[in-house]
Design goal:
Blueprint: H1 3-14, E1 47-49, H2 64-70, H3 84-95, E2 97-102, E3 105-108, E4 119-125, E5 134-139, E6 144-149, H4 154-161, E7 173-179, H5 181-188, H6 192-214, E8 216-218, H7 226-232, E9 241-250
Antiparallel strand pairs: 1-6, 2-3, 4-5, 4-7, 5-6, 7-9, 8-9
């Protein structure tokens, strides 16, 4: 990135007012209907019901202060699988819905600018009890996961798309977050692209703390090959694209 572009981007991050973003010209201000809360899916798509919150009692006994104090990035995982209950808890902690406000708004377990929640959670499942290795997508409204597709050498393809960071392939599951920018642009226009990055940080921090609570490890990954990762989970790279990922697994 040139010095000129770097300066422009720094100015963008510092001050949306000086950039003269006109919020009266957003689609929300023009009366355009909001985008859906989650990506649509076929009614006959294979879906797996996740474990409900009331079944998690006793799974994690770590208090918040200890979770914050002990949180760290883990790059060494055992080959022990995650249970479906553990995966369910981590999905709920990072994108679970606590209250449906109306057809276009829901409050989740992470903050999001204007409650727009422009992220989708994909899973590269490698070793989770009861699940076939495949790419899945979390459906927060239903608290289910949808099997998107299976593929040969999923482990190797995840590692390749993560710029050959081998620890990604040693995990039990890789959380892959995409952004659907229009969900945020609908309300905030150009300013949406700043808060999208903030939202991704909120989600991943919740993953770290939730992992610490149940005794598993994770490591945030922002270094990946963008076109390869987008193609891996079959998103178009324009209206939806990968913004962050984090492998999760048991640690010794």
């Amino acid at each position: 990135m040139s010095d000129s572009l770097m300066t422009q981007y720094r100015e963008f991050l510092k001050d949306t007012i000086r950039l003269k973003i006109d919020f009266s010209q957003t689609d929300q201000s023009r009366g355009v209907a909001p985008p859906p809360l989650e990506k649509p899916f076929s009614a006959d798509a294979p879906r797996i019901r996740l474990v409900a919150p009331d079944a998690w009692q006793g799974m994690g006994q770590t208090d918040v202060a200890s979770a914050i104090k002990n949180r760290r990035s883990c790059r060494k995982f055992t080959y022990e699988p995650l249970s479906l209950a553990e995966l369910s808890f981590l999905l709920w902690a990072t994108q679970g819905i606590r209250q449906r406000v109306n057809q276009s708004t829901a409050l989740r377990n992470v903050p999001s600018a204007g409650a727009r929640h422009a992220l989708e959670t994909y899973l590269g499942v490698l070793h989770v009890e009861g699940l076939e290795p495949a790419i899945y997508r979390y459906l927060p409204l239903e608290h289910e996961i949808l099997q998107e597709f299976q593929m040969s050498d999923l482990r190797g393809q995840l590692v390749a798309a993560a710029l050959d960071q081998s620890f990604v392939g040693h995990s039990a599951v890789v959380f892959i977050w995409t952004a659907i920018p229009y969900r945020m642009e609908w309300r905030y226009g150009l300013a949406a692209h700043k808060v999208l990055a903030l939202d991704a940080g909120h989600v991943c921090q919740n993953l770290y703390l939730a992992c610490e609570a149940i005794g598993v490890g994770t490591c945030a990954v922002a270094a990946y090959h963008q076109p390869l990762m987008d193609r891996l989970i079959r998103v178009d790279g324009e209206d939806e694209f990968v913004v962050y990922l984090a492998p999760v697994g048991k640690v010794s």
